[in-house]
């Protein structure tokens, strides 16, 4: 039994051992399987991670390769020019306008306050001088600050880009947030670091940052916010400006001082933590009272001569140089305008009751010294000096008489001032009965008298005698370029449509011995921002009309001021020439004239072509502002008081002519000093005022008549005879009355019938202010200019 029991025990033990062995085998198998699966999973994970890494590496590599293909080369980076405003100067090199999309004033690093530099480095890139373009520490610090801000609302969001990366982005990239852009940014940063020194990079950065309110670069920002150059910025001011860099609109102290101060504190704390300022300095800066100034940073606010500059911009600069170069190429544009005269002209036009324009030209060079096209450019872009085609009225008459003189007539020759009647001379009118302004007629008068008194029927007869073509040709030679010159006798009443600039330009030939430039000159010189000369405009002077004719017309126009319709333009002790102009129904009023060294035109009227009011003429409403402007110009420019005497080469001589008879003047004559072609002046003296003038004088004045004058001459002769009889009868009656001690009978007032008015149409396609405003905006859009 014991043996059996022992055997059983042994068997049981064997069974247990077998069971244990079986269990061990199972566990081992399980461990083997687990090891296998673990190895498989690890291998699979390794393959997946490796695939991901490889894929990412391939993707990143491809992205880098792709990005590298689309970044500027070393040479392109070297040759890159920062967007710089173009500066417009007046003739005395005073700044009158800035043209820009980014208003920037480049400064060197040494011209920037050291506090501004330290503040920028502290807030944006404290490791700037130790990294090679990117900063791993900076990226990590920015990431941690962003996480804190998003999770706990603490800390200040920071950018991970270095100053070099920001510069790369500002110069060559957009602000989009993509991997490709970030890769480009890093690659460009490496190239920038390769080309430039740290100081050069920092200087470029400080000049390219946008600080809001239209201010690009630290110096412009300093002037915009604090009215001082960047070199004078304090610690507190520097911290405010640096605080603007991440978000100029958000941290703008002019709109949200609380947010701005919060950002300022962050910048100051960064400077303190780096040991660049003490705790005391930081505290004092935080409590420093900031004084802000509003310095304009919009193109319109930087334009002191908007009508002049807009003409130059759209007619000269943009067509020739393009938007990018004009608004960002740093051109230096030296113009002909004198800002002192321009300001005065704008002042005068602004205070006019109606709209107006003024154009002033230096006759010797035809340089435009002032150009104002309206009361307020901001309210109306319509430039009435260059775009308003208006009838010049009687101010066109010098061109008619100039053409007559060039055909052989003289100021001393006579015309009939009397009634005229044309069957069809008024553009669709069945009958045209032109008359003088006052409805009166003066019988036989000299051409000189007709211009001085601005008679209407005489220039009409003049055109009837010589034809309209010579007048048109003469006007064009003088400088009139309008396509609106009617080929008929309505020219005599100024039915052409002209601009104030055109009239001033054409009148300049009378003040310059018949010479003028090919066109008015607005720009003297243009230079690049480096100082290279791109353009020099030296006026090409041509002999437009004969010197003899120009001097004759000039001296006739002196008489308009002395004794005619332009007496309100008289300036003491100064030779003044000029001509008034008034159109039918008192719609347009003009005065064009000049003094030695300056010619100007003043126009006033209403944009809707409504009347200025009955009796409002060029002499009453345009001559006084013209005089005010010219008087100021004489004093400002130091102009001479008298015109130079014609040189010996000019075939003219001075003669005292009687305004009434046209003969040489006697002591009792209304004498007019006239420059006439040598050998054309009468040789005998005025018979009307005691002289011995006679038809036997081969140079005696000649009566010029047209077909209609035959009947009129007979009427005049009959009227003269009746007048003589009436005068004889009146004398007899007076004598008889005196004998009877009775008062003489009153003289009857002659009744002069009023002649119908000849209404001249305005140019149908004359640009209107509203359409010009629209066109101005379209031009800005066309050239890509967005203010």
**Secondary structure tally: strands:** 19
Distance between the termini: 119 Å
For the largest beta-sheet, the strand count, sense and barrel status come to: 5 strands, mixed
Number of continuous helical runs: 22
| Helix coverage percent | 40-55%
Strand order of the largest sheet: 2-1-5-11-12
Poorly predicted sequence stretches spanning 5 or more consecutive residues:
744-765
Shape: elongated
Averaged pLDDT, please?
85
Counting helices, strands and paired strands, the structural category is alpha+beta
Radius of gyration: 44 Å
Strand content: 5-15%
Description:
The chain has 787 residues and is of the alpha+beta class. Helix content is 44%, strand content 12%. It contains 22 helices and 19 strands. The strands form six sheets. Strands 2-1-5-11-12 form a five-stranded mixed β-sheet. Helix 5 crosses helix 6 (179-195) and helix 14 packs across helix 17 (468-478). It is elongated. Residues 744-765 have low confidence and may be disordered.
Quick structural gist:
The chain is α+β, with helices and mostly antiparallel strands. The strands form six sheets. Strands 2-1-5-11-12 form a five-stranded mixed β-sheet.
Present the secondary structure layout.
Blueprint (H helix, E strand, L loop, with lengths): L1 H68 L4 H6 L6 E4 L5 E5 L3 E2 L9 H11 L11 H17 L10 H10 L6 H17 L2 H11 L6 E2 L1 H9 L8 H10 L12 H17 L5 H9 L18 H23 L3 E4 L3 H12 L4 E8 L4 E6 L24 H10 L7 E4 L25 E4 H6 L4 H10 L1 H11 L21 H8 L7 E3 L5 E5 L5 E4 L4 E3 L3 H17 L13 E6 L5 E8 L2 E8 L12 H20 L14 E7 L12 E7 L25 E2 L4 H31 L29 H14 L5
Parallel strand pairs: 1-5, 3-4, 8-19
Antiparallel strand pairs: 1-2, 5-11, 6-7, 6-16, 8-9, 10-13, 11-12, 14-15, 15-16, 17-18
Helix pairs in contact: 1-6, 3-9, 3-10, 5-6, 5-7, 9-10, 10-11, 13-20, 14-16, 14-17, 14-19
């Amino acid at each position: 039994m014991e043996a059996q029991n022992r055997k059983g025990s042994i068997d049981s033990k064997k069974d247990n051992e077998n069971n244990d062995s079986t269990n061990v085998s199972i566990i081992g198998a399980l461990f083997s399987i687990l090891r296998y699966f673990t190895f498989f999973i690890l291998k699979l994970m390794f393959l997946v991670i490796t695939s991901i890494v490889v894929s990412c590496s391939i993707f990143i590599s491809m992205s880098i390769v792709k990005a590298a293909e689309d970044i500027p080369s070393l040479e392109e980076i070297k040759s890159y020019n920062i967007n710089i405003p173009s500066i417009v100067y007046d003739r005395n090199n005073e700044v009158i306008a800035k043209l820009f999309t980014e208003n920037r004033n480049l400064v060197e690093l040494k011209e920037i306050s050291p506090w501004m530099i330290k503040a920028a480095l502290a807030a944006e890139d404290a490791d700037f001088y130790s990294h090679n373009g990117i900063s791993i520490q900076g990226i990590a610090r920015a990431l941690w600050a962003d996480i804190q801000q998003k999770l706990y609302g603490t800390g200040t969001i920071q950018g991970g880009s270095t100053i070099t990366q920001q510069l790369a982005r500002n110069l060559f990239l957009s602000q989009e947030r993509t991997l490709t852009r970030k890769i480009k940014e890093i690659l460009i940063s490496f190239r920038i670091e390769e080309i430039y020194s740290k100081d050069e990079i920092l200087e470029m950065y400080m000049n390219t940052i946008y600080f809001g309110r239209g201010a690009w670069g630290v110096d412009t920002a300093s002037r915009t916010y604090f009215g001082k150059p960047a070199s004078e910025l304090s610690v507190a001011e520097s911290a405010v400006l640096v605080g603007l860099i991440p978000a100029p609109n958000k941290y703008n102290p002019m709109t949200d001082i609380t947010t701005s101060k919060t950002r300022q504190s962050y910048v100051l704390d960064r400077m303190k933590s780096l040991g660049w300022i003490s705790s005391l300095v930081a505290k004092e800066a935080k409590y420093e009272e900031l004084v802000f100034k509003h310095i304009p940073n919009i193109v319109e606010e930087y334009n002191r001569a908007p009508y002049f500059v807009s003409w130059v911009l759209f007619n000269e600069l943009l067509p020739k140089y393009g938007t990018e170069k004009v608004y960002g190429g740093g051109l230096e544009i030296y113009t002909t305008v004198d800002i002192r005269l321009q300001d005065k002209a704008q002042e005068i036009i602004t205070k006019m009751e109606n709209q107006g324009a003024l154009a002033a030209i230096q006759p010797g060079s035809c340089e435009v010294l002032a150009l104002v096209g309206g009361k307020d450019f901001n309210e109306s872009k319509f430039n009435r000096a260059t775009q308003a085609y208006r009838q010049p009225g009687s101010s066109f008459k010098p061109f008619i008489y100039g053409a007559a003189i060039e055909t052989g007539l003289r100021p001393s020759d006579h015309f009939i001032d009397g009634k005229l009647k044309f069957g069809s001379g008024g553009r669709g009118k069945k009958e045209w009965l032109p008359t003088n302004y006052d409805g009166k007629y003066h019988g036989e008068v000299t051409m000189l008298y007709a211009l001085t008194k601005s008679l209407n029927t005489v220039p009409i007869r003049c055109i009837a005698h010589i034809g309209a073509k010579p007048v048109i040709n003469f006007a064009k030679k003088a400088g009139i370029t309008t396509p609106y010159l009617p080929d008929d006798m309505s020219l005599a009443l100024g039915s052409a449509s002209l601009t104030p600039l055109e009239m001033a330009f054409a009148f300049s030939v009378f003040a310059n011995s018949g010479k003028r430039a090919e066109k008015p000159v607005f720009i003297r010189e243009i230079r690049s921002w480096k100082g290279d000369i791109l353009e020099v405009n030296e006026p090409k002077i041509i002999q437009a009309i004969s010197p003899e004719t120009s001097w004759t017309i000039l001296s006739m126009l002196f008489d308009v001021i002395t004794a005619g319709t332009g007496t309100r333009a008289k300036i003491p002790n100064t030779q003044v020439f000029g001509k008034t102009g008034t159109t039918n129904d008192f719609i347009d009023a003009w005065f064009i004239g000049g003094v030695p060294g300056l010619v100007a035109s003043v126009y006033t009227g209403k944009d809707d072509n409504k009347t200025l009011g009955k009796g409002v003429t060029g002499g009453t409403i345009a001559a006084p502002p013209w005089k005010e402007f010219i008087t100021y110009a004489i004093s400002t420019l130091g102009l001479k008081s008298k015109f130079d005497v014609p040189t010996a080469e000019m075939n003219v001589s001075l003669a005292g002519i009687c305004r009434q008879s046209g003969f040489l003047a006697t002591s009792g004559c209304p004498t007019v000093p006239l420059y006439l072609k040598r050998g054309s002046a009468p040789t005998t003296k005025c018979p009307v005022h005691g002289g011995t003038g006679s038809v036997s004088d081969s140079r005696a004045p000649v009566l010029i008549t047209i077909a209609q004058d035959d009947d009129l001459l007979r009427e005049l002769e009959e009227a003269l005879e009746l007048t003589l009889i009436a005068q004889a009868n009146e004398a007899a009656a007076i004598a008889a009355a005196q004998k009877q001690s009775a008062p003489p009978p009153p003289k009857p007032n002659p009744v002069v019938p009023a002649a119908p008015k000849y209404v001249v149409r305005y140019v149908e396609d004359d640009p209107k202010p509203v359409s010009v405003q629209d066109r101005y905006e379209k031009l800005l859009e066309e050239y890509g200019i967005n203010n």
